[in-house]
Every structure is written in C-alpha cells, then in structure tokens.
Design a protein that fits this description.
- The chain crosses the membrane at residues 32-49, 69-86.
- Residues 87-157 form the Low molecular weight protein antigen 6 PH domain.
- It is built from 3 helices and 11 strands, in the order E-E-E-H-E-E-H-E-E-E-E-E-E-H.
- It is elongated and about 80 Å long.
- Strands 3-6-7-8 form a 4-stranded antiparallel beta sheet, with helices on one face. The protein has a 3-stranded antiparallel beta sheet with strand order 9-10-11. The protein has a two-stranded antiparallel ribbon with strand order 1-2.
- The chain has a domain at 88-167: PH-domain like (Roll).
- The longest helix has 23 residues, at 29-51.
- The model is unreliable at 1-18 (pLDDT under 50).
- Helices cover 38% and strands 26% of the residues.
C-alpha cells in the first residue's frame, strides 16, 4: 500500500486522504518500537512496585504504599518520555510544508526551500533552505526504507510543482 497514486505517497498518508496535493507523513517503525517500549516500561515498573515490601535490607526503613505508587508513577513518566518519539510528522501541500519533530515545529512556504534531501547514510530526510540551513524531518526515517523514499518523492513533487508555478509568473 505504499505505491503512488497521482504522484502522492498513499501509504504514508493518514486519515484516508487521497488528495494528490496534500501529503501527510509519519514514521512507522519507530512508532511500533515506542509503543511497545512504553507498555513494557509500565509493566516492568508495576512489577517492581509490587515487589517492594517490608524492610529495606538492614531494617532502617520499610517500603510503603507510597513507594509502590511512586514506582508506578516513574514507569508512566518514562513511558510518556518514550512516546515523545512518536510525535514527528510532516504535512505538505501546494503552499508549503509543516514539520513537527520531537521538539519543535516549523511551518515553511515552499519559496524558502531549496531542496528536499535524503542523503546516503543519513538517519532521516531534511529540507535544505535557501539560507543554507538544513531542517531535519525526523518523520522520514531511513529505517522505514521504501516508505520513506516514497514520502521524499511526494515532497519533491510538490516542491517542483511550486517552483514551476513561480517560474511561470
């Protein structure tokens, strides 16, 4: 399901969007890893919390219900931290591109984008801007292989269409 329909990467679009001028991209593999890790963290910390009973070793203190709840709370906090890595996404249309990374979001018109890059060996794609900045797009990860390539192709198609519009008039 990652073929191209009308030039857009259908496998990468979410929400049943079939408009060839709108592309929504999200990483796949990292989401599975993060959700699995989050569940595992909560389970492990809950199991550890249930084993916290009685004296702490030499009898100087004892584990109480608050200690157990704190351990479960830590598991939930670590799980939420792992889920931050599911945040990245890219949405683009004929007017511009919106990039949301783990920390930070950017909304750019195509006019400031020189190129959509996915260099060999790079962990993710990036936008090369006319001011020589590189804006990483963590949503397009090399780990997703062909899906990431299809996403980059769809972004390049939108970028070329905008450049052609600017050249005409």
């Amino acid at each position: 399901m990652h073929g191209c329909a009308g030039g857009a990467a259908v496998g990468w679009q979410t929400g049943g969007v079939s408009d060839p001028d709108l592309v929504r991209l999200r990483p796949r593999r990292i989401r599975v890893v993060c959700w699995s890790s989050a569940v595992a963290l909560v389970v492990v910390f809950s199991l550890v919390a249930t084993s916290l009973r009685g004296p702490t070793g030499f009898g100087y203190g004892t584990f109480q219900r608050g200690d157990q709840l704190a351990m479960v709370g830590l598991g939930v906090l670590f799980a939420l931290g792992a889920l931050l890595f599911t945040r990245p996404r890219v949405e683009a249309d004929a007017h511009g591109v919106r990039v949301r990374n783990i920390i930070g979001s950017y909304e750019l018109p195509w006019d400031v984008v020189r190129n959509v890059r996915f260099d060999r060996g790079a962990p993710w794609a990036s936008l090369e801007l006319y001011d020589d900045d590189l804006l990483p797009m963590v949503a397009l990860q090399a780990a997703d292989k062909e899906l990431a390539v299809d996403g980059v192709r769809a972004l390049r198609r939108l970028h070329r269409a905008r450049q052609a519009t600017l050249a005409q008039g």
